Fold this sequence. Notes:
The structure is a homotrimer. By secondary structure, the first copy, chain A, is of the alpha/beta class. Chain A contains 18 helices and 27 strands.
Amino acid sequence: MTGLDALTAAHGVLYGGDWNPEQWTPDVWREDVALMCAAGVNLVSVGIFSWATLEPEPGRFETAWLDEVLDLLHGAGIAVDLATPTASPPPWLAHRHPETSAVDAQGVRMSVGSRNHFCPGSPVYRDHVAAVVRHLVDRYADHPAVAMWHVGNELGQTCWCDLCAERLRTWLRRRYGDVDALNAAWATAFWSQRYSCFDEIVPPRAAPYLHNPAAELDFRRFTSDQLRDVYRLQAAIIRERSDAPVTTNVMNFFPGVDQHAWADDVDVVADDCYTDPADASSPARAALAHDLVRGVRRGQPWLLMEQAAGAVNWRAHNVPKSTGAMVLDSLRAVAHGADGVCYFQWRASTGGAERFHSAMVPHAGPDTDLHRAVRAQGALLQRLRPVVGTRVDARVALVFDWPSWWAGELLPARPSMRLDVLGQLAAYHEPLWRAGIATDVVPPSADLDGYDLVIVPSLHAVTDADAANVARVPERGGVLLVGPFSAVADEHARVRRGRFPVPWADVLGASGEDWRPLEDEGVVVASDRYGDFVATTWSEHVRSDGAAVLATYADGDLAGRPALTRRTHGAGDDAGQAWYVTTVPPRDVLAAVVADCVAAAGVTAPLSDVPEGVEIARRGDVLFVLNRSRAKQTVRLPAAATDLLTGDAVADELLLPAEGAAALHLAPTERTR
Amino acid sequence: MTGLDALTAAHGVLYGGDWNPEQWTPDVWREDVALMCAAGVNLVSVGIFSWATLEPEPGRFETAWLDEVLDLLHGAGIAVDLATPTASPPPWLAHRHPETSAVDAQGVRMSVGSRNHFCPGSPVYRDHVAAVVRHLVDRYADHPAVAMWHVGNELGQTCWCDLCAERLRTWLRRRYGDVDALNAAWATAFWSQRYSCFDEIVPPRAAPYLHNPAAELDFRRFTSDQLRDVYRLQAAIIRERSDAPVTTNVMNFFPGVDQHAWADDVDVVADDCYTDPADASSPARAALAHDLVRGVRRGQPWLLMEQAAGAVNWRAHNVPKSTGAMVLDSLRAVAHGADGVCYFQWRASTGGAERFHSAMVPHAGPDTDLHRAVRAQGALLQRLRPVVGTRVDARVALVFDWPSWWAGELLPARPSMRLDVLGQLAAYHEPLWRAGIATDVVPPSADLDGYDLVIVPSLHAVTDADAANVARVPERGGVLLVGPFSAVADEHARVRRGRFPVPWADVLGASGEDWRPLEDEGVVVASDRYGDFVATTWSEHVRSDGAAVLATYADGDLAGRPALTRRTHGAGDDAGQAWYVTTVPPRDVLAAVVADCVAAAGVTAPLSDVPEGVEIARRGDVLFVLNRSRAKQTVRLPAAATDLLTGDAVADELLLPAEGAAALHLAPTERTR
Amino acid sequence: MTGLDALTAAHGVLYGGDWNPEQWTPDVWREDVALMCAAGVNLVSVGIFSWATLEPEPGRFETAWLDEVLDLLHGAGIAVDLATPTASPPPWLAHRHPETSAVDAQGVRMSVGSRNHFCPGSPVYRDHVAAVVRHLVDRYADHPAVAMWHVGNELGQTCWCDLCAERLRTWLRRRYGDVDALNAAWATAFWSQRYSCFDEIVPPRAAPYLHNPAAELDFRRFTSDQLRDVYRLQAAIIRERSDAPVTTNVMNFFPGVDQHAWADDVDVVADDCYTDPADASSPARAALAHDLVRGVRRGQPWLLMEQAAGAVNWRAHNVPKSTGAMVLDSLRAVAHGADGVCYFQWRASTGGAERFHSAMVPHAGPDTDLHRAVRAQGALLQRLRPVVGTRVDARVALVFDWPSWWAGELLPARPSMRLDVLGQLAAYHEPLWRAGIATDVVPPSADLDGYDLVIVPSLHAVTDADAANVARVPERGGVLLVGPFSAVADEHARVRRGRFPVPWADVLGASGEDWRPLEDEGVVVASDRYGDFVATTWSEHVRSDGAAVLATYADGDLAGRPALTRRTHGAGDDAGQAWYVTTVPPRDVLAAVVADCVAAAGVTAPLSDVPEGVEIARRGDVLFVLNRSRAKQTVRLPAAATDLLTGDAVADELLLPAEGAAALHLAPTERTR
């Protein structure tokens, strides 16, 4: 059995947080469990940073405290997500085996005293990981409280040490077979980098100038794969003895882990998502992150493993959430497919580097506004049981790929550092999010047949096969929207020769010969359809090879050349379309372009008119309406519905208080599509 | 005998600077001494960076030049502050013993060719220090010119090497006894940092993420203590043979040395204070620094050991002082308790890294405006003999503590990096300085009974005992003013559990549950007493538990909650008050709050009306009036006085030219309090 | 035979670029050579980064490919600039001999995988360099295609390793003879830095604070000399067998190489010059760079070895050139004395770190606007054969010196980091460039007798001999214009004692005693001649000792003191003048001052009235007129001429289209001077 089914069947929407009993005395444990029950908590993650407590000396395990903790939780009916404590080895490991600590690109070995200092390639580290996980699994696999396994924490280490260098070479040997294949893929003829054998290869350590981009790209692939090895080592030991689902918490758009390559290794996608109350774009970015992680395992319900109840502590200035925003963040996750919302952490630590991170029980204790809101939220979430297990039905796909991101944004010496992959992704996602149109973020290798509209905001590097997969969209009658600087390179970051985007020039009916980053003032673009506008950052020297020209550069070196094109494939109802945006239009123009593509694809939004500050998202038969504004809002509905959060019937007008929300259960016949 | 008494008895106000004869030929020495005499110089610091000259090879000492220098000075009646040359060991030491050079947190060993590269924990360095100091003391302890000893220079090294790691462990063993006590104090249960023995502990070297805050705090304590050991080693050798006072030059708010912990080790506090002519806040900051160093040894007269006569060279753009500002800087120091003002340095170097630092004799020689001003200042200072040895009588205390500063400003991952301890200290000090109200900066463990008003702008971490010491102020009828984010943590940076500020919630009659850094636009605060205002940076979710609410948040999440409270203790003339400011008010509002506290404490200013740009400060019976502005100013006086600087009688109105000053000797009956 | 004579005699203006056939298959070679012929390419640089291809394993050379390449080029009549491939050794070298890789100031050894990672001091590296160069020379010295040799590429490595430390000590022993001389030159009495023997000296590695400036200065000298050794080693091997000119490509104002010290080592100065289309000051800076490199070998024609045809890839945002700007950049170089213009690179790479650098053949192939412009430019350049070998006849010299630049701009702890040598140089050069007045940038040791006006914008450090050389200018009847903070130091960065500028106080008739960086708002300067203006950044406390005062500080500390002076030497037609500017005037005021000096020197501009956006430059009998603006322009000419670019006769008015240009061949009698 995989996924969250068993857990949610028993508990409804999951609710809880990281709990670190090793920081507290047993009397606090008992107070905590009572408070959890009062708050409706039904899932806690235990033991994430407990290695030094569990194994205070090599081979000597102390588990009595954990026995008691698990029994306590089980007695209270709270499920346990039991962590392998491998994110931070105890100081004794580095003391006895210095090579178990990671080394940075300058050759500096990481010290103990922080966290996550381990070298993921160290055999000694891996041996100790295996031993502690085996001990934990042997002891607790059959404990009735244990409902899920949590491997490590935010796996993300990059290490440049000699041990990792050796593993890198092994990985490269496996990938390329012989060194000539590597030399070709890495284009080592440039700058006299040809390797005569694999032994000469080292990780991209400190160098006088730019590194080989293909080498950097493969080092990122290797690093993600090596972290997956560390995960797999632990998951395998768990699965020998336990049927409970195994997961690890990821960090959505974190560059260090290619989640698409890990999809089959986790039974549940568990994500850490920290919105920033001081950043107005944060809700849209959170929704994008949710659409990403939901897409990793093809729409399967996921788990919001970590978020903050109030403020975080790691920004320079940490504005806290209001209690209203806390609830909206949770409901947004559920609306976008989460079956549970958890927090870092249950009780605020008094010491350590995160003592100023908010928690479900603050330093001032449970008799506080924050904790009262936590308790009220628990009650609210229990009313959302009808959404558990349901799917978000998306007809729009946004294409995103880790290696392409690495190649397109994280390598230096590109035409412009101002054109970034994530920024483009967010720009194309935002109008969809504002309209409440469900969108899956998927890799370019995904089965795209289920989508009426496929948007490729910025896919810098793409394999031939993936390029062909995307190109089929308009050919089969779908709508394809391609952003600038796309399909530029192959999977080794080698620029494709010919008129760009080489693999899509035909399907777009347009092709280019020069990327032209713009001076700061931008360039005027003329368009009958969208009105004249000023485009910024980027332009491309393109010609139409059959596509309709919807906008034209009006001044500058490209005056008279196409800025935006659309080729129609086929005719009539089955006609497909291929749109090509060669610049960075202003937000409203891009929104109009996306809206045109949405309409062309026959996709409709759940509501036709959404007030500013109100956010909608549909999941299954439930339409979530979230009022982020500090004013009350009225939302017109197409039909009557029932608000799951209150149990009230709602006629054609929904009134929401400031920071209020509704989860409208639509009668099946009233579905908006 | 300690302190400056013998020196000032002989010379009056001390005046002089660092003199580095090893950079010059004997003919320049003789010119210099003649110029010193003409300028009224009576104290020079000699030999600070002379180790390589004194001991050109290990164990071979060359002192003939220094014999001659001391004789020359003595012959001219100039006292010598003889330095141990230990700040910068000669290159031969690092060449023969590489481990005598410090190592940074990345493991990089410091090179020779600069200064202060030594490792303070190296036994070999310490042995060589002992040898050179012993040689110097043996030779010169009885030399009649030697009136004071100057140990090293600006002691401030932090070293992360293995030798220092070993000393750190010894220091920790002594502090904590057993490792479990350390584990508890450092909260090592967080992030699996539990140490199984002291041997596993290393300094906070390069790590992948945040360090344990308690470990960082103790490393700062250890570093300050280790530097004190280097000082003590030398002071002890000196004191075996000499009765002259021993000092070292500190750098007021320098984080590396906890001066309060060194107070009993120095006979005189000697401070280096460099104002910045391009920074309008610099005079206030200098006055604050003076109030700090005077407080270190409980008000005893101190020595301004280094300042600049014109420009410094180490800022990115070094605007020089006017000659008027040069004099005002000196008079400010005397007004705030200094019995001497010296400079870095007497004669400008032609080579080396500080060749562009101004000096009392510039490169262009003595026939220059700058040197003429230096000479005129010498004459002026001689007229201030009546202030020598007198005390600044302060009834207001400002509480400041190095470890609390470290915990509250220098550790990362706090609620906001924008709320800084020194900034808060300066904000609460400034209105007192503007009014000319004498203020001592004291540690929280100080005897506070002598103060009518005690201000705690930002005391992040505090021991239980110190917290109780502060809490007694309103209980005994004094006025206590507490700023935001105070008494948050204990001495290990562990957040105190409960409603904050936990140890003062009762005495303040108010308590809080959430620190809430503000969005950039701030928040409106409504107050009948102070008018409505916009507070910025910070707010706290607080309730009154009996205190009067003097201002209330008017919008945002905290609308309606107290922003400023005052609890009255007792009644009638003996009533104490406890004020609590939970935010960062604008400057004028904070000035009004401080003025109310001053009035409540029964403290009065020396003058009731001070023009903008004029600065006053009272020391003993002398009221200093400094006109920093470039316009002449008129100051109304309560009574007639005599201006020590001119000898003139002044009636009820004092006229000062641009950048002019007066030192008014008040008749005892005319004292303003 | 040296220089470009043989090459240009055969080919006219040289045209081509770097070609890296090792990145391509032989079919691409043949396409490339055909395209080169069509574009008028007559010179290509081959093999710059080919070491790993040439010598895939130690001692095993593969040259068949290069044989074919050279034969192909020779068959097409294209001359070859054959490179020694020593800029980037193959990975096998670092793998077998880690000490052949450079180490930075923090002790980090550079990794392979980038380029130019070699340690220039490593004997093993040098042995391998000698071997590969010898092999190349033996094989190709007699190949008829080889017309020039290109040693390495952009030599610029700085290395702090122990091998280089040993070489540094040897270099210092040779420079100073005994260590006391070094101690005196380095002023090591400051900060106890006295060395007891050379063995104690290390390069300026990571240190706790500022390094000794003289040590830094000598390290820069040593580094430049050591790179010259690497060059000389290769040039010597080449010259044993070949008479073709030897060069290496420099980077004009690159601090790492003192070109004046290399002048006699190169047969041709070959420069890499990359304008920035997004920076309006870029054309003026390029002209300044051209005037610099032309001056290195006393006006001999030089070669623009590298420029970009479109965009570069190493800025954060790389705005491309228009095709018009591409041509103007080439013509500017020729107008300023270049006999050839080449590009990096011929064909755009698909892989490697510079895959997004533009090329003469872009990724999209030859059927592109960019390549068509490259071809058209080839035809244009062939029409400029009459300028080949001719000289730029400059009567104005701008004095610049690498060691003085190092001392005055690159050492820290100066009075102001805002006053920079290159900025001052550019400020004084710009009005000359705008007027089309030919200017040579020369070292202070140059023979200045040929110049009527000598400008010294910012010569911080100067030897006595060079100072005297400059001082003779007004004495022999020339005009000397000196900028602020000049002649401050000697060649060891030691400040000269006395009234500044010490060696020129007499010739200027003015002297100063204090450098006074200004507050941000600047200072008002009053002048009858130039009108009142606001000067910024810098002021000096100066008095006139006989000079006329042309402008006076009107407020601030220096009110009433001279800001600008002029001393006249002699009388009548032979009178010389010495001007002294003590501040940073606004651009228009500085232009007026320079214009006055130009007039005083009897220098006239080629045209009296040049429209904004039009740039003129005269070389021999040809006046280049370049219209950088995006509008057409009319330029009035003093007399009829022939436009070499079109062959058309031009009467008294020249009409230029947007980004158009003319090369007017003046009848000898019509010369403007």
